[in-house]
Specification:
Putative odorant or sperm cell receptor. It comes from Lynx pardinus. A hairpin with a 5-residue loop joins strand 1 and strand 2. 74% of the residues lie in helices and 4% in strands. It is mainly alpha-helical and 314 residues long. Strands 1-2 form a two-stranded antiparallel sheet. The protein has a single domain, classed as Rhodopsin 7-helix transmembrane proteins (Rhopdopsin 7-helix transmembrane proteins, Up-down Bundle), CATH 1.20.1070.10.
Length: 314
């Protein structure tokens, strides 16, 4: 579990995650809503993917991007699932350093994919409203596939240094993490060696995600400008209504991630329970809520889902 590096320091090779601080006695009960949220998230996103795959009428750019969002949501769920279940179901908070570095790579990677997909979806809504006649000729299936590949490569390259820079650090005195899964900014604080490279690159990673958010804001400024140029009030509302699901997805994803980043970097004294709750909201709520939002607010998805459910009952 530990290896001696010299007479005064002991290098830690196992970290300890946390459940709900102060509520350890209730972990088995807390596991019920947590497991339910994972099940809803996985089933909901699988349903979205199945409906889009099997319905030819949904083979359009908007729904292809929604499929990418569903896949990134499932990736986030499966990345944190092992440690969350171990902590809350089996009271086993230990995780090896290498497993921790691997987990934070996948969590940050899928979060970066989701951020990029939300950005592309905002441009998709702008194109659909601004140039409806050229929309399909601009976003052809081949271009959508290329965009998906670029998003994936960009996200992998962005987070690829994380596990290697963390692995190069020494961990001597502290082994207690502050979340139920591994995050880059959480692990690097435990290092007893110089972690300036991790701090700088971690800030660059957060900045990159914030650039996505700012570009989404620019897209909606252009959408609003285009909508205000439409003469008919009814057409204005119809155009804006196509953006409601995406706006909800953006708020659900970015609000907890911005709060968590601010807490980690600028807030000195904060309740450990608040830290854990915010981190769990980040990975549990978006994958669960996105399918619900898109099913409720997108008529085409809702009608197909209801039709599939009725078909199974018959």
């Amino acid at each position: 579990m530990m290896s001696i590096i010299n007479t005064s320091d002991v290098e830690i090779t196992t970290f300890f995650l946390v459940g709900m601080p102060g509520l350890e006695y209730a972990h088995i009960w807390i596991s019920i809503p947590i497991c339910s949220m994972y099940i809803f998230a996985i089933l909901g996103n699988c349903t979205i993917l199945l409906v889009i795959k099997t319905e030819p009428s949904l083979h359009e750019p908007m729904y292809y991007f929604l499929s990418m969002l569903a896949m990134s949501d499932m990736g986030l769920s499966f990345s944190s699932l092992p440690t969350m279940w171990r902590i809350f179901l089996f009271n086993a908070p230990e995780i090896s350093a290498n497993a921790c570095f691997a987990q934070e790579f996948f969590i940050h990677g899928f979060a970066a994919v989701e951020s990029s997909v939300l950005l592309i979806m905002s441009f998709d809504r702008f194109l659909a409203i601004h140039s409806p006649l050229r929309y399909r000729s601009i976003l052809t299936p081949i271009r959508v596939v290329k965009i998906g590949i670029v998003i994936s490569l960009k996200s992998v390259l962005l987070v690829l240094p994380f596990p290697f820079t963390l692995r190069s650090l020494k961990y001597c005195n502290k082994s207690q993490l502050s979340h139920s899964y591994c995050l880059h900014q959480d692990v690097m604080k435990l290092a007893c060696s110089d972690n300036r490279i991790d701090v700088i690159y971690g800030f660059f990673g957060v900045l990159w995600v914030m650039v996505d958010f700012m570009l989404i804001a620019v897209s909606y400024f252009l959408i609003l400008k285009t909508v205000l140029g439409i003469a008919s009030r009814k057409e204005q509302l119809k155009a804006l209504n196509t953006c409601v699901s995406h706006i909800c997805a953006v708020i659900i994803f970015y609000l907890p991630i911005i709060n968590l980043s601010i807490v980690h970097r600028f807030v000195r004294h904060v309740s450990p329970l608040f830290n854990v709750l915010m981190a769990n909201v980040l990975l549990l709520v978006p994958p669960m809520m996105n399918p619900i939002v898109y099913c409720v607010k997108t008529r085409q998805i809702r009608v197909r889902v209801v039709a599939k459910l009725c078909q199974k009952q018959m």
